[in-house]
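README, section 4: Worked example with a bound small molecule

Sections 1 through 3 covered apo chains. Here we extend the same pipeline to holo records, where the ligand is supplied as SMILES alongside the sequence. The molecule in this example is zinc ion. Nothing else about the input changes; the structure line simply encodes the ligand pose together with the chain.
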Amino acid sequence: MSQTDPPELTELSRLIEEGRSHFDIRELCQVQCAGRSLPVHSFTLGNDSPEVPAVGFFGGVHGLERIGAEVVLAYMRSLLMRLPWDTVLREQLKGVRLVFMPMVNPGGLWLGTRANPNGVDLMRNSPVEAVEPVPFMIGGHRLSRGLPWYRGHSQAPMEAESAALCELVERELLGRRFSLALDCHSGFGSRDRIWFPFAHTAQPIGHLPEMHALRTIFDQSNAHHTYIFEPQSRQYLTHGDLWDHLYLRATEQGERIFLPLTLEMGSWLWVKKNPRQIFSRYGIFNPLIVHRQQRVMRRHLALLDFFTRAASSYGNWLPTAAARERHRAQALACWYSEVVNPGT
Ligand SMILES: [Zn+2]
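The generated complex, written as structure tokens:
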């Protein structure tokens, strides 16, 4: 890596150097960008038995939203620095698998674009078709790679980065009895949101009770949090969402539970507090002032750590029998009261 690389790529290289004796590091694919080849990496840590639960952290799907990659890299760095002395962490890792793909779209990061170097929006690139109307353009389209939110050609295979993400999730997460995923983005609205599927329909997922139970333990253990926890469909529908695709794949595997979440860090407030940011495309999606960046990082690191704990201890909070039905009823009332004829 050269000195002109974005700082996230430099930190990634450092983590590969410093972390190679702790993390299992794999190169998933190579992406061609501006005459150079950029590798896409995964990192795994903790117990590799398929019997233990797992949690996956993903960042940088949209190249412009660098803060998402930074949050995942910062969490990886925190774990790496704690491993030599933190006996609680070492104990925890005996019962859980941690999976990281901190920079899904290094070419987009390098170019400063939402899409990958082929002009494809990776979060519109799965084969899932929305079953209800999606917003024009934003919902995903096949008009031209020159326009944002392009899904790719209908006959083309998934982009290398999307395919690598899906293979990693299938290999490391979907084979387990329980797994969670958190994909870190920024740019929507002024509040931080935690979204869960579906994005392709306003109907609820089958694991709505489990999602509501997760929200409940999150509320209870973080009394002053300000995240809005909701299905993505409450905001807008899209074609081609990777997490809808992977959730549907997981439901084909019987009793397995896979709960994918997306962190959408609300960035409009960053812009409001520093209106000059609006003139920087990079600035709209990322906090520019150091103290704001530190506050963003602090808050979300606690969130990532919560998800690791929730995955580790899933047997203690997953609802069963009557409690499960109570969670379903509460979730339908909370999130789907406007949806006519919700599925069960
Ligand atoms: Zn995004």
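What to look for in the output: Residues 61-62, 65, 185, 187 surround zinc ion (CB under 6 Å). The chain has eleven helices and eight strands.

Section 5 describes how to batch many such records.
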